[in-house]
């Protein structure tokens, strides 16, 4: 299969996330992703974009790139908000009762579970999170 790619830029606004999901759905079709891979891509990208939109005070854009290369799906999300590594968050206590569990952390848990790996780096004035998912 040939390499397929997507480049998408959006404002850091929760109201812009549905348009991102529409574009990801179209990319998944064009790239021939399995339904499972398309769902994982949408969940990971939505979590990352929503996290920036809700917590990245001062960010002026979110830039997303997705590339399918054979059985690999590479997802990169960049923003120009303050430095923040979402992967540094501690794992949530999934065994705790809902009433006693800390709020938050499940999105990062999903990223860890749904990807083969994810890394964060601060590159100049940009936060960059890169994840590898299965395309099949």
Please give a structural write-up.
This protein is α+β, with helices and mostly antiparallel strands. It has one domain (4-134): Histidine kinase-like ATPase, C-terminal domain (Heat Shock Protein 90). It is built from 3 helices and 5 strands; from the N terminus they run βααββαββ. The protein has helices at residues 17-31, 35-55, 106-114; strands spanning 4-10, 62-69, 72-79, 117-123, 126-134. Helix 1 packs antiparallel against helix 2 (35-55).
List keywords for this structure.
5-stranded antiparallel beta sheet, 29% strand, 3 helices, 5 strands, Heat Shock Protein 90, alpha+beta, 136 residues
Care to give the gist of this entry?
With 136 residues, the protein is of the alpha+beta class. The chain has one domain: Heat Shock Protein 90, CATH 3.30.565.10. It has helices at 17-31, 35-55, 106-114, and strands at 4-10, 62-69, 72-79, 117-123, 126-134.
SSE topology sketch:
Layout: E1 4-10, H1 17-31, H2 35-55, E2 62-69, E3 72-79, H3 106-114, E4 117-123, E5 126-134
């Amino acid at each position: 299969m040939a390499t397929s790619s997507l480049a998408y830029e959006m404002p850091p606004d929760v109201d812009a996330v549905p348009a991102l999901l529409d574009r990801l759905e179209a990319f998944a079709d064009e790239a021939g992703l399995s339904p499972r891979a398309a769902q994982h891509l949408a969940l990971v990208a939505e979590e990352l974009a929503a996290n920036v939109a809700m917590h990245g005070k001062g960010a002026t854009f979110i830039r997303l790139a997705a590339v399918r290369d054979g059985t690999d799906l590479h997802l990169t999300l960049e923003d120009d908000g303050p430095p923040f590594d979402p992967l540094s968050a501690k794992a949530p206590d999934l065994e705790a009762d809902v009433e006693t569990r800390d709020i938050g952390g499940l999105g990062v848990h999903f990223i860890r579970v749904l990807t083969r790996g994810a890394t964060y780096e601060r590159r100049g004035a940009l936060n960059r999170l890169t994840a590898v998912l299965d395309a099949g």
